[in-house]
Design goal:
The chain contains 14 helices and twelve strands. By secondary structure, the chain is an alpha/beta fold. The protein folds into three domains: 102 residues, Probable tRNA modification gtpase trme, domain 1 (Gyrase A, domain 2); 145 residues, Up-down Bundle (Four Helix Bundle (Hemerythrin (Met), subunit A)), CATH 1.20.120.430; 154 residues, P-loop containing nucleotide triphosphate hydrolases (Rossmann fold), CATH 3.40.50. The strands form two sheets. A six-stranded mixed beta sheet has the order 3-4-5-2-1-6. It is flat, with a radius of gyration of 29 Å. The protein binds guanosine-5'-triphosphate and magnesium ion. Its cofactor is K(+).
Length: 444
């Protein structure tokens, strides 16, 4: 299959629907239009009503067609959009007719956007924004995706890269005139100042506590506690379904069980975990290890204590933070005398106190999400490159400060430019393109 294939896909959702949109991109479009549309090649950018036929002249459907000639189209190529009735028979007849044309094939996931990227219509962060806005479930995800697809990150990275290019030029002056007596002092001071500013900016961006990634992928809450505290009962109540097995036997839960909810306007993953205790049971011990890992990685931990038989050892967990929540459970039965200090008393089984706990969880999450304004990093891919870029800048600064060699500093700055360039897809991204675009749905 060559790059020049004309691609086609259903761009709208699953049938049946009132209307479907079938999209085509590539240089066979004028031929297809001539053969299959009663109207022939439509006037550019005008919705045209036409009958759409298969190769034997049988009518597929009647609908609208819009022709957008390249290069002023999404992909930069000639594109055609067909608006037909969104029934399964219409769609399969249309798609099979189109793909039976020579040089026309079904698009791969994200292939339209990949062509747009390759045509320079958008950079990689904007392309990711396109994928994200399609997936966006919360307003926060939508806002973040919109900012990204309209160039919010591009601007930031372009600014950094431009500054680095300026810094590189200044360093090269030092490299070019190594013997001039006054060159190092006078020239390196402003370079160091600029470099330090940029290092500060990038450190600030990296110090966002992962909020951009969390808005996109979800925040994490872990329910932890001793066996039988009622963790799985609480998870089921928060899920509104029997997601986890509940029994009266301590040590019921072994694997981590996760549910996904929207809370405080954010996607949140809530994990139920194995009760924490010393055990000789190999399976349970693995469950405890997993529980501890989940607890250590979560944004918030709910420490659950059975109020009728409190086991307080879990409260001295090394992962406990001041923002974490202590919940005493089984409020519907007799409470023991030695209750710990707690934030909420609930009955996970009967529901009492759970709404107040849910409100607290929601408020925590929404507070955390809004603690960073407009994060510059929304994916692990960005973070990895920024971390690498920062390391190069720090190495460059060291080389300049120690006077060990402006050539080394220049090389480090060049590497940093490459790392930042990789985020926007300007350089060295062949290896990540497949991963980025495979996340897309077909038709986008
Ligand atoms: N009376 C009362 N019983 C509860 C409450 N919550 C849970 N239980 C009971 O406590 C027992 C243990 O509940 P689970 O939810 O399985 O407890 P767990 O913390 O997940 O236990 P492990 O998976 O073993 O760690 C079950 O018999 C539940 O019905 C509650 O609020 N009140
Ligand atoms: Mg359990």
């Amino acid at each position: 299959m060559s790059e020049r294939d004309t691609i086609c896909a259903l761009a709208s959702g699953q049938p049946p629907a009132a209307i479907c949109i079938i999209r085509l991109s590539g240089d066979r479009i004028w031929k297809i239009a001539g053969a299959l549309l009663d109207c022939g090649l439509p006037e550019p950018r005008r919705a045209t009503l036409t009958r759409f036929r298969d190769e034997d002249g049988n009518m597929i459907d009647e609908g609208l067609v819009v022709f957008m000639p390249g290069p002023h189209s999404y992909t930069g190529e000639d594109t055609l959009e067909l608006y037909l009735h969104g029934g399964p028979a219409v769609i399969s007849h249309a798609i099979s007719t189109l793909t039976s044309e020579p040089g026309v094939r079904l698009a791969e996931p994200g292939e339209f956007t990949r062509r747009a990227f390759e045509a320079g219509k958008l950079d990689l962060t904007e392309a990711e924004g396109v994928a994200d806005i399609i997936e966006a479930e919360t307003d926060a995800q939508k806002a973040q995706a919109l900012r990204q697809l309209s160039g919010g990150l591009t601007e930031q990275y372009d600014r950094w890269r431009a500054e680095l290019t300026g810094i590189l030029a200044l360093i090269e002056v030092v490299v070019d005139f190594p013997d001039e007596d006054d060159a190092p002092e006078e020239t390196t001071a402003p370079v160091l100042r600029k470099l330090n500013n940029l290092i500060g900016d990038i450190e600030a961006a990296l110090g966002d506590r992962g909020i951009g990634e969390k808005i996109r992928d979800g925040f994490r809450i872990a329910i932890i506690g001793a066996p039988n505290a009622g963790k799985s009962t609480l998870l089921n109540r928060l899920a509104g379904r029997e997601a986890a097995i509940v029994t009266s036997r301590p040590g019921t839960t072994r694997d981590v069980i996760e549910i996904r909810r929207v809370m405080g306007g954010q996607v949140v993953w809530i994990s139920d975990t194995a009760g924490l205790r010393e055990t000789d049971d190999e399976i349970e011990a693995e469950g405890v290890r997993r529980a501890e890992r989940v607890a250590s990685e979560a944004d918030l931990r709910v420490f659950m204590v059975d109020g009728s038989a409190p086991d307080l050892s879990v409260l001295s967990s090394p992962y406990r933070l001041p923002t974490d929540i202590v919940v005493v459970n089984k409020a519907d039965i007799d409470m023991a005398a030695n209750l710990p200090a707690y934030d909420y008393k609930i009955s996970a089984k009967q529901g009492e106190g759970v709404p107040a706990l849910e409100t607290a969880l929601s408020e925590f999450i929404s507070g955390k999400a809004s603690s960073v304004e407009a994060p510059v990093i929304t994916r692990a891919r960005h973070r990895v490159r920024l971390v690498d870029g920062l390391a190069c800048l720090i190495a460059a600064r060291d080389a300049l400060e120690l006077g060990t060699g402006p050539e080394l500093a220049a090389e480090d700055v060049r590497m940093a430019i490459r790392h930042l360039g990789a985020v926007v897809g300007a350089v060295g991204v062949e290896d990540v393109l497949g991963a980025v675009f495979s996340e897309f749905c077909i038709g986008k």
